[in-house]
Amino acid sequence: MASLVAILDVKGKSLIQRSYRDDVPPSYIERFLPLVLEMEEENVQVTPCFSDEGINYMHIRHNNLYLLALSKRNTNAAEIIFFLHRLCSVLTEYFKELEEESIRDNFVIIYELLDEMMDFGFPQTTESKILQEYITQESHKLEVQARPPMAVTNAVSWRSEGIRYRKNEVFLDVVESINLLVNASGNVVRSEILGAVKMKCYLSGMPELRLGLNDKVMFEATGRGARGKSIEMEDVKFHQCVRLSRFENDRTISFIPPDGEFELMSYRLSQSVKPLVYVEASVESHRGSRVEYMVKVRGQFKRRSTANNVEIYVPVPDDADSPKFRASVGSVVYAPEKSAFVWKIKQLGGGRDYMMRAHFGLPSVRNEEIDKRAPISVKFEIPYFTVSGIQVRYLKIVEKSGYQMPWVRYLSVNGDDYILRTITDAKSSSMIAPL
Amino acid sequence: MAMAPPRKGENYELRQQLNSEYRDKRADAIKRVIANHTIGKDCSGLFPDVVKNMQTDDLEQKKLVYLYLMNYAKTQPELVILAVNTFVKDTADPNPLVRALAIRTMSVLRAEKILDYLASPLSRCLKDENPYVRKTAALCVAKVFDLKPELCVEYGFVETLRDLIGDGNPMVVANAVAALADIYEASLALPTTPPASPGRSSTPPPSSKPNPELFIIDPPTLTKLLVALNECSEWGRIAILNTLARYRAVDEKESEHICERVMPQFQHVNAAVVLGAVKVIMIHMKAVTREDLIKSLTRKMAPPLVTLISSPPEVQWVALRNINLLLQKRPDILANEMRVFFCKYNDPPYVKVEKLDIMVRLASEKNVDTLLGELKEYASEVDVDFVRKAVRAVGQVAIKIDEAAERCVGVLMDLIETRVSYVVQEAVIVIKDIFRKYPHSYEGIIPTLCSNLEELDEPEAKASLIWIIGEYAEKIENADELLGTFLESFKEESYPVQLQTLTAIVKLFLKKPDESQTIVQKVLQAATKDCDSADVRDRAYIYWRLLSSDPAAAKSVVLAVRPPISLPQTTVAPAILEELLAEVSSLASVYHKPAATFIGKGRLGAEEMQRRALEPEEENAREKALQTVVAGQQAENLLDFDADDDQPQSSSSGIDGSQSLSMLGNGGISSTTISNVAKSTNPLDELMDLFSTASMAAPATMPVAPVSTVSGIQGLQDDRSDAFAGLTGLSSPPQGLGSGVTSPVQGQSQQKAGGGGAQDDLLGLF
């Protein structure tokens, strides 16, 4: 529970705050940043939660803002930190960007939201779609007063009644992000697939849905393992609309969906994945004069698939200048703010490989700092393909006569952490011909 | 306001507008008032004018006026009464949103006068037909209890709250549970009538204290909670899980039932729900004996914990801190999952450090090669602090896994070759630990270390290298030369380095007396004459006397065999670990400190004590007390034996050097030490007051121990000779820092303590 929630700017000044309990005076907000700075100065790790003089400070960062909660008790830290993240996403959904400007412009509505989302320090409703039904930017003019939507307290707290569509449609997106780490010798050290099933639901009334996947556990339980490929999802997380006990019993995913767009479930597989887009770079560095790169990329997936919008980030020294590039395909730009150059390839066919070279000047004065040795990172998306082989077998809409096949799309993309440490120093200069 | 308000300025203008006849103008003015309040201007002077605008159909305007009231009611208690009428009227408004808003606001106004008018609207709202109003009213009871407990008791609000647990609406149930838990916690802080018997259920309810029986969860309530758990919102689930964690199951079957019903919550997206479920299961699993169920519970716990690692960094950190605790209790849950803890390049530093710690915890013979490769990679990053910790982790792995020690040394030698100053220094510190664990195994690397002598500029690294030279003086040909260089700069060195130089040269002399006569004379001279540190001087005098009177005794003292070191499985004492595991996801589990150590001072500390006193079974509490005393003694033991250790530990240092030096310098263990221990194990001394009979004797006699026995004398000498060791060793277990190393002797005494209670342990020690 939190006694006080505040949003602070980068200088530690409170932009907006709301007290929920009287045990922590608001004056403690001003102490937050000085404490952080003091810790930084004394080389103490600044952690999301810390305590000072009996007051516990819990905070998260978003852009240039601190979202801070104070408490005097042995609070549930996970709850409060998670709440602050939720607050962040609700405010972002309301104002597109959550930043100083948007907070100043919308203080009235933020007060209303803070009042509704937390009461006496206990989080209440954080579902932004529901909040938007009765807290809107248009101030309510006299005629109709807003009423609390049923959903706020309903067992189905995420959907309002009386929704109508002329055309009932459901879209399903199965997106798998691949995180992996390749070490210097080209071996995969760690890999995981983070999958998500996203839905766009335009259905009338209170539809009852059931989703069937090629889930191995369920196949085995029902004795149909022989047919087709099945996958073993290690850890499944569901949107709160899914009946967890039902899933625990017989692996049925049944739910009443929220209206519109939402993420139905996410799952994780730690099966080993080979890098779909493999990149290696060799560097020849001449301290004080220049540095040369040779980068190779290979699409390691089926020939009939294509990776779109491939972006390869190769790190270069901070002080590199006068870039020169030559690429067999795509375009290359220098991104000095990221200390990297980016090789962009619109379409990379499966089984194809390409090369590029880069040349940078280096200042003659030696940089005292050692090289950061950042790894290469890659962005890409491969449509109509999932690494795990997950398939949507059916989506049944119960209570409606007959059922329809929803629109299903599959997509594989890079995760936040698709990293290759395959930058090697060229041993002999003959490996790289002069540009 | 006594003074007449000024007739110009912004507030004057606002007042004009607030009293304007046009609705728009007034609405606008209210917004401006709130805007001014937001930027920190004092708007209390406008109180009556704002309150006039309370009665309106415009919901937004009403909310703003309420917000204003919440902030300024305290400053204008006598004017609040103006608002009462509208409030009471609003609590009967046809719109449930307005009813809830009114009751919600009314119950937080800190004004005695309002409270008197609150009772009847509140009882009405608690029975409102609309669940939104009921769930809001439920929390209001907790608010009122915070302001005026007597009122709650008088009107029986707590009983009504209790009835709401049976409400058909899960959100109402959740809020009622949350409110009850809050009231329960607050009621413990209230002054009690003299406790006739401290049992929870038998105290007669004093006027301001609600009947404690209201907070007991009975089996029917449990069923209701388990049903609501599956139906309510994520935040409601957290409240219910917290309550389930407090519930004491009547038998094993019920514990099993709870575990099975809570398990599905692992699949929830909300990290706090997942951790809450982990907490409940960790608590109720203790009563479960069915092997297959325990297995399935631990197996199912792993994937959700792993998934928490892909949450936003702050959530990740909270999860990692908790995982760290869980692993201390059940190291097997994540045995095969080390890879997920590999640090990402862009992880914030606080996450990286935590991951590093967990990786070392999970290191085993199977995965050690991958881990070492990874650690080596980290050692080439830019963040100095992280690099150091990575190097340190290599050393910890070497000490943890005997088979991997050689590979670790290999990695450290590679790192030393990089010649990056801080990497080399950290590696030297770590290698000294390895020498300590595996004496005489890796002497081949000593020349390489010595060749890096010039690079060392940090005291700890220097001291470590000097220790190594002293320890292996007989094998190093030019040991006297090397130590001579340190002697030259003796006066400029920091105290730890001086102490180590002194000891190392004495060791050298005892090993090779012929060649080092002059150098030992010099160092004793320098240390006794030119040094400002009492510790250094004292130690030098002791050596001098020892050497001059009885060289054989000196040999047995200075060159005594040191107990080997090991990496402990836990960073906190077992009793505290249990306590923290019962609090998973709370701040206590995140800080790895019992709540009493960081919540409030004085009054709240007392609150904690009362809570303990009220533990239902006195026996239970007594047992706990004994455990805590044992824990305290471990802290104590750690102190002696660390001082005995000729070796700074591989963990981060807890207490600043000078303090610990002076403590040890004062003749080994003194009252300062005791108070220090007491401070760090706060529950210890509280409990001591409570159960003074059996346990009081133990700590009181402890400090005398090392001095009054034969082995004690040696202990004392070593204390002094190696006070330096205290530098890193002193932090005591409850702080979770002094984790580096424990000696087997200490382990022994722990066993005894565990077996025979406090006093047995004392005897055992002698």
Automatic annotation (TrEMBL), chain A:
It comes from Kwoniella bestiolae CBS 10118. It is found in: Cytoplasmic vesicle, Clathrin-coated vesicle membrane. Its main location: membrane. Transmembrane segments: none annotated. Pfam families: Adap_comp_sub (PF00928), Clat_adaptor_s (PF01217). Keywords: Cytoplasmic vesicle, Membrane, Protein transport, Transport. Residues 167-421 form the MHD domain. This is MHD domain-containing protein. Signal peptide: none annotated.
From TrEMBL, chain B:
PANTHER family: ADAPTOR COMPLEX SUBUNIT BETA FAMILY MEMBER. Adaptins are components of the adaptor complexes which link clathrin to receptors in coated vesicles. Clathrin-associated protein complexes are believed to interact with the cytoplasmic tails of membrane proteins, leading to their selection and concentration. Residues 193-213, 609-628, 642-662, 724-760 are annotated as: Disordered. GO terms for cellular component: endomembrane system; membrane coat. GO terms for molecular function: clathrin binding. This is AP complex subunit beta. Residues 609-625 have a biased composition (Basic and acidic residues). It comes from Kwoniella bestiolae CBS 10118.
